[in-house]
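INFO  loader      accepted 1 record
INFO  loader      residues=140
INFO  predictor   begin
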Amino acid sequence: MTDADDRTVHAAGCVLWRRSPDGGGPEICLVHRPRYDDWSHPKGKLERDEDPLAGALREVAEETGHTARPGDALPTVRYLVDGRPKEVRYWAAEAGTGTFTPNSEVDQVLWLPPEQARDRLTQPRDRMLVDALLASLHRA
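INFO  predictor   done
INFO  writer      dumping tokens
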């Protein structure tokens, strides 16, 4: 393992979706993190030796209150945070049962049609994950 590997922050998350209650297309869940005042997909740092998919599903449950049924792996997103590399692995995941309860990490969730979700996401790097999800659902 190189020094760069030791410094990389490993995280995982999901592009969480559900079928629209009105029978329309999919809706995507975005979370608002008050600490950063941003809208993103549910994600978080992996615990030591945690399997990335297990971590992604844990983060979805912690941040949204929902269980999730994982689907296809989506693109991995890489960027720098305070000069340190961060790598976030993502999966498509269909929302299961659950109820959101605001907390200190996430104070709001929104379920939005894909175009609105893409527009609401704070980081441009998160927008391509909406397209990846739609491509994944189209193949299914």
